[in-house]
Automatic annotation (TrEMBL):
SUPFAM superfamilies: TPR-like (SSF48452). InterPro entries: TPR-like_helical_dom_sf, TPR_rpt, Ycf3/AcsC/BcsC/TPR_MFPF. This is Tetratricopeptide repeat protein. TPR repeats lie at residues 59-92, 127-160, 161-194, 195-228, 229-262. It comes from the Bacteria. It comes from Candidatus Merdicola faecigallinarum. The keyword Phosphoprotein does not apply.
């Protein structure tokens, strides 16, 4: 590496002098980048600190030093350097985002949200910032504001699967099942291969007492990479209600094979009374270990839907409309989508 540097440094100096550029700063940055490329962070840091001591206004030095501190786990030091960097370059949106990310890691959620809000005001098409802000707001259960963030992001990303899916989760938590259903369906339309919300659509269809539509969605859910045992369970319930005992028994067996705890649930479910003697009994729980590959917000939305379904059962569309808690700003996703397409 020493040989490499000894050859290129003189060449770089000549070029910089010819163009009347402060070559000492550029040489220092070049050296720092070279050492960083070879994973020599100690030497990189020493060069940058020395450069900042000589020139406190070196934007690139502050930014690079911040990245090294972040890599080392020194989040507060990293934030200090990043703040210096954006003071010198107000359009460094990536560094704004990095600060917000680190603030959240330090447990300063409100400050992180405020920083992301400022960032989106400056650059409203910054998708990653909108996604992160929506996530933080949902974790605070501020679903109304999260929906506003997602709606703004749709202006710049009208066919983004994640935005529609995340909006579906937010609407679900607000009991606005009509708009949740529209969002989940739009997400599936955009990319059915990545879609993991068919289960939620199935439960929403059950809430509307639409067994045929629920059956369709649960069948789609079974095509996913991570199959929900509850999809088999609800298909079994649907067939039991429809009087197709053979299918009800088969799907219940599949559900219990994947999740033995569903056996006890089925025994207590009056829907299964006609096939009660066929419910698997005394299932072996010894080696059962179900790992749920699901984000926290997805898990909470799923649990919310299930709890709503088991508490109220089937309810009319008028009753569901009355359950909406998002009254201040009733957003019609379908109409908004049409506006974006035109």
């Amino acid at each position: 590496m020493t040989y490499f540097i000894s050859i290129f440094i003189p060449i770089v100096i000549i070029i910089l002098e010819k163009n009347q550029i402060n070559y000492m700063e550029h040489i220092s940055i070049f050296l720092a980048k070279t050492f960083h490329f070879f994973h020599k962070d100690k030497q990189t840091k020493a060069i940058l600190i020395k450069l900042i001591h000589k020139n406190p206004e070196s934007y690139m030095a502050h930014k690079m030093l911040g990245k090294i501190y972040e890599k080392e786990g020194g989040m507060r030091k990293a934030i200090d350097e990043y703040v210096m960097a954006i003071d010198m370059n107000k359009k460094d949106y990536e560094t704004y985002y990095n600060i917000a990310f680190l603030l959240d890691k330090l447990g300063k959620r409100d400050e992180s949200i405020e920083m992301l809000g400022h960032l989106i005001d400056k650059k409203p098409d910054y998708y990653e910032a909108s996604e992160f802000l929506g996530k933080l707001l949902c974790e605070q259960e501020n679903f109304k504001e999260a929906i506003n963030v997602y709606m703004n992001a749709l202006k710049y990303n009208p066919n983004n699967y994640d935005i529609y899916y995340n909006m579906g989760i937010a609407y679900t938590r607000l009991n606005d099942f009509q708009n949740a259903k529209i969002c989940y369906e739009k997400a599936a339309e955009i990319n059915s291969m990545l879609y993991n919300g068919y289960y939620n659509l199935g439960i929403i269809s059950l809430l509307y007492d639409d067994l045929d539509e629920a059956e369709k969605y649960f069948m789609e859910a079974l095509k996913g990479e991570d199959v929900e045992p509850e999809s088999y369970y609800h298909l079994s319930r649907i067939y039991a209600i429809k009087g197709d005992k053979e299918k009800a028994i088969n799907y219940l067996n599949l559900a219990v094979q994947l999740d033995p705890t569903l056996s006890k649930k089925a025994i207590a479910d009056p829907v299964f009374i006609p096939i009660q003697r066929f419910i698997p009994q005394n299932v072996n729980m010894q080696n059962y270990d179900r790992t749920i590959k699901m984000k926290l917000k997805e898990k909470k939305a799923k649990e919310h839907l299930e709890n709503t379904f088991y508490i109220v059962g089937k309810i009319s569309k008028n009753d569901l409309k009355k359950m909406h808690t998002y009254q201040e700003k009733d957003i019609r996703i379908e109409e908004k989508g049409k506006e974006l397409e035109n």
